[in-house]
Specification:
This protein is mostly helical. The protein is built from 16 helices and 2 strands.
């Protein structure tokens, strides 16, 4: 039985995706990566404090902005948007409010508006590296990975240890099939934060795509050591094991994927084919 053929997978030379992996736009980062919560520079401890600066009064909305990011973290996106819009209406010069608005709009899948918000934030303050990362995410979501890279790179010029920038940069490079550069970017993200299962998952995806199955299996193992509840990681581990010729172990991995998510159709198809190969 031709496992690749019966899985409906094209050869690597045709689609450059021998594992039939999920499209890059569907790979999700953990909430901690998606909901960045930069901390505005503390000006005063008060809720809304007027300060004399260059002979002008400047109002600090620090607590409002912090509350906006807190609401964003809690998935209360509309409330967060209302807060950020309120700050912007009161003082459109507050760059971090525009950045927060961009993050909320990204979560609401309003990516075009998010791009506008991030660009406004960066017009006011080009050193907001999280705004560069958010802009890259929005551009990637709009189907422009090249433009996304042009946002991640400035962020890394400001601070080379932004794990989110390395991670999302790696995803954009994977979309562009620049696998060697993508691997280097993901490896840098893991050097900074090896505790993120999603980054290990994506690394496994990448290595499987270029048919480096042993490396893919090792990466999926790392991901599962951190989060054993993801059925897709068990499935892709099983698929990598199948291509590596480890049919019995592959069947065990796919079985675990189905225990977690019985409706996972790809895992069901692979499970049946592996059983057939084993004569079960």
């Amino acid at each position: 039985m031709n496992l690749r053929l019966n899985l409906g997978l094209a050869s690597a030379t045709k689609e450059r995706s021998s594992l039939g992996m999920t499209p890059m736009t569907m790979i999700a980062a953990p909430p901690e990566l998606l909901r960045l919560q930069p901390k505005p520079e503390r000006r005063r401890s008060g809720r809304k404090v007027a300060q004399l600066q260059n002979n002008e009064f400047v109002v600090s909305f620090e607590d409002w902005i912090r509350e906006g990011f807190h609401l964003l973290e809690g998935d209360r996106f509309e409330e967060a948007l209302t807060l950020f819009d309120g700050v912007i209406e009161a003082d459109a010069r507050v760059a971090i409010a525009w950045m927060g608005k961009g993050f909320v709009l990204n979560e609401l899948q309003r990516h075009e508006e998010a791009i506008d918000a991030f660009e406004q934030a960066l017009h006011l303050d080009k050193t907001l590296y999280y705004a560069w990362v958010g802009l890259g995410r929005a551009r990637e979501a709009k189907g422009s990975p090249e433009l996304a890279l042009s946002a991640y790179d400035p962020a890394l010029e400001i601070d080379t240890e932004i794990v989110w920038a390395w991670y999302y940069r790696g995803l954009s490079l994977m979309t562009l099939e620049e696998y060697e550069a993508a691997l280097a970017s993901l490896d840098e993200a893991l050097r900074l934060s090896p505790q993120w299962a999603s980054i290990w998952h994506c690394r496994g995806w990448l290595l499987g795509t270029i048919e480096e199955y042993e490396g893919a299996i090792a990466s999926f193992d790392q991901a599962l050591a951190l989060d054993s509840s993801d059925p897709w990681t068990w499935y892709y581990r099983g698929l990598s094991l199948a291509f590596a010729g480890e049919t019995q172990t592959a069947l065990e991995s796919v079985s675990q994927a189905l225990r977690i998510k019985p409706s996972l159709s790809r895992a069901q198809d692979l499970f049946e084919q592996l059983q057939s190969l084993l004569g079960e």
